[in-house]
Amino acid sequence: MSENIVSKLKERVNELERQVENLLKNQETTQAILEAMPDSIFILDNKYVFRCYYTQKVEELYAPPDFFINKKINEVLPAELSALTMESIDNVLRSKQIHSYEYSLEMKGEIRFYEARMVPKGDKEVLTIVREITERKNYEKEILRLATVVEQASQVIVIFDSEGNIEYVNPAFEKSTGYTFAEAKGQNWRILKICELDAHVYEELWDTISSGKVWHGIFHNKKKDGTMFYEKATIFPIKNTEGQIVNYAAVKQDITIEKKLETQLRQSVKMESIGNLAGGGNDNRKMTTCANPNLTTLSFG
Predict the structure, then answer these.
(1) pLDDT per residue as tens digits for the range 188-200
(2) Residue 16 lies in a domain
(3) The PAS domain covers which part of the protein (predicted)?
(4) Quick check: 167 and 187 in contact, CB under 8 A?
(5) Which of 10, 148, 171, 200 is at a distance of 20 to 30 A from 157, taking alpha carbons?
(6) What's this model's pTM, rounded to 2 decimal places?
(7) Does a structural domain hold residue 265?
């Protein structure tokens, strides 16, 4: 009987050792995950009190841990953010669902933006993962500003992929060509039926932009209604932060009027040259006419 007890004790000890080993492995895994995360983590209870935290950059917290731990949210955060956070805690504990929200804080004299994801931790606590998104917000703001410029630009702007398929056109494109964005999207940029572009020029264009350089040239295109028009184009690659080409863009200006004026001027110069030559011929004939009587007189003199 004693041997049976000893055997069971050994089994229990072995089981506990395995559990401890698994626990340590889980702790190591958890620690590794936490260290790899750029986020800060906070646990708050249903009384809106900060219970614990984890962050790699204590200096970037709104307040030092020894100040906010075991304090209520409204004793630490600004009133508007406190109200938003407390409302989120109530919603998460009631719905048992993840809740996300964004907010801003003034930190060291500048406004920073954050995204918070809150999940229930039992019935009385929530775990909140906070990530700074200032860079993303600034990027979005810049994109919005550039998008506004592009939308309002008088020049035609087209963005297309590596196969030449259109992904975006601005309103100026619709006005200039007669094609709507919906009609142009997904179509090859040669939807405009480019004329007078030699194969070697077309090849040179793609060689130039695919090597990361800018191409300049003139297209003789056809509008949706069949009208021919000239465009001065600048085509260049769009690169991501790693320097890889992800798209191409074309900025184009209708120069049909300039081309017509240029043709008229060339024709005018040509006609003037012909006129000058014709005028010179008449003078020669006059000289001959005047000379002939003299020659006649001399003949019979």
Answers:
(1) 877 766 665 677 8
(2) no
(3) 142-188
(4) no
(5) 200
(6) 0.56
(7) no
Query: Helices (H), strands (E): how many in the chain?
Result: 8, 10
Residues 253 and 194 in one domain: yes
Contact of 194 with 186, CB cutoff 8 Å: no
H or E stretch covering 211: none
Residue 58: domain span: 31-138
Count Cβ atoms below 10 Å from residue 48 Cβ, excluding itself: 18
For residues 164 and 221, state if they share a domain: yes
Length reported for the chain: 301
pLDDT of residue 147: 84
Encode 97-137 in three state secondary structure.
CCEEEEEEEEECCEEEEEEEEEEEECCCEEEEEEEECHHHH
How far, CA to CA in Å, does 229 sit from each of 97, 183, 205, 207, 220?
A: 58, 19, 20, 25, 6
pLDDT of 165-189, one tens digit each?
999 999 999 999 999 999 999 998 7
What is the C-alpha to C-alpha distance for residues 210 and 14, in angstroms, rounded to an integer? Answer: 64
Report the number of distinct structural domains present in the chain: 2
